[in-house]
Amino acid sequence: MDYLNAGLDLVQSRLAWVATDPFDWKLYLQLTSWGVCLFESYLLLRQFPLYSKTEPPPVLKDHFKEEVFKKSQAYGKDKAKFSLLAGFYKQIVDSIFIHFGMVAWSWKAGGWIVGKFGYGPEYEITQSIAFAFTLFFLSSLPSLPLSIYQTFVLEEKHGFNKMTPQLFVTDLLKSWAVGFVIGAPFLAGFLAIFKWAGSRFVPWLMAFLLIFQMSMVVLYPTVIQPLFNKLSPLPEGDLRSRIEALASKLKFPLKHLYEIDGSKRSSHSNAYFFGLPWSKHIVIFDTLIKQSKSEEVEAVLAHELGHWYYMHPTKLLSVSQLHIFSILALFPAFLRAPPLLRAFDFPPQVAAKPPTIVAFLLYQMLLTPLEAVVGILMNAVSRKFEYEADRFACELQNKLGDSKMADMGDRLGRALTALHVENLSTVWVDWLYSAYHHSHPTLTERLRALEGYKAAAAAEKTAVEKKEL
Ligand SMILES: [Zn+2]
């Protein structure tokens, strides 16, 4: 712990100027956030011409009927146009908000709200919660028309929207309510730790965040998701027995197997697992079950169990802890920095003793361009994991010594292609666009890799059989 604190102190002394020297942080934020926005637009412009191609890549030629390919290109083009315009719109709104000091204004509004309830500025945590929700509402309202357009015009036009206006409104209200019920105590705990631990908050806060993440793993599926979707046990039958058999052969601690009514909102489909190490739940979208044969859904689950087998979620959690640690380690320099608050239009009396939540939020905003880079790295890790899980499915025949699984790679390929076709997912993808935005390799890349894994698994099988002879 002493070693850790010494290291943190060194970082702190290097950044000591932040607390004393005036710097135009607002200009820095405007320039860097516009930089990210322009880069994202550039990526869309790289991707855009690919939507005019008239033929799918050779590997996919047999799977895409001309009609479906045309539809997928049209859908992609519409989505890209929307993303380009929405990106600029959001950036302009954010830019105006920053220019006119919206963060400072929200802090004042938070103080006014809690004042109405008889709490003065000495109640920093209470005012912080009021501030955070004011700021959240102000910044999310302008993008509401965008999500309405996306759901009821764009997705509707291409036949994906299953949402009714009523469901849209209740979803929104529910998500705000859930945000408040979870967010307020979370924020209070977060700020209380700062108050209590003083300048040595890093390890304590990390422990707090980890406990919070773990409790969300339990709470999300059991309490939150049922507010939005219906999870029902997967009925007895071929699919259920296949998945149960697979889970038990791999010693996957399967507790519950659910079907989720994903089709209530959209016909995009998927499957996933979650839970604590000793008790896992698998959830399959009803749309996936409808679109694919049970042996293909089994292959999708084999891929998912590959993620579990190689402990991908745990590895991703460790990477995210490292990420959180670096963010927190640099934060003390920004925690008591009056020039930072002055740069964002806070009055001198507030800036003199910066509220923790304000300092943290401004600090987070300054990290935007760095977060974009972190996102690219996280995508690279995630893609590597996707390939590993695909290979796992192909190797199951040897791992479990089950020749009925010899065609697992083919089945997975068919399921992935069917999902892709049903979702009208983009077929031609620019490599830079994909590196920035996608956590999964493209379908073409995955099918090509699957061919290699299948061949390797078959060769291994022959080698083993020869030895046995
Ligand atoms: Zn995966």
Notes on the structure:
Helix 8 (165-197) packs antiparallel against helix 9. It is built from 21 helices and 4 strands. It has one domain. The protein is mainly alpha-helical and 469 residues long. The chain is globular. A 4-stranded mixed β-sheet has the order 1-2-4-3, sandwiched between helices. The model has no long low-confidence stretch (mean pLDDT 90). The longest helix has 34 residues, at 66-99. The site of zinc ion (ZN) has 4 residues, from helix 12 and helix 18.
Q: In angstroms, what separates the terminal alpha carbons?
A: 59 Å
For the record, the count of structural domains works out to 1
Over all CA atoms, what is the radius of gyration?
25 Å
Q: What are the low-pLDDT stretches, counting only 5+ consecutive residues below 50?
A: none
Q: What portion of residues is helical? A: over 70%
Give the structural class: mainly alpha
Our count of helices gives: 21
Let me know the average pLDDT.
90
Named once each, the bound ligands are: zinc ion
The proportion of strand residues reads under 5%
EC number: 3.4.24.84
Keywords: Endoplasmic reticulum, Hydrolase, Membrane, Metal-binding, Metalloprotease, Protease, Transmembrane, Transmembrane helix, Zinc
Organism: Dichomitus squalens
Function: Proteolytically removes the C-terminal three residues of farnesylated proteins.
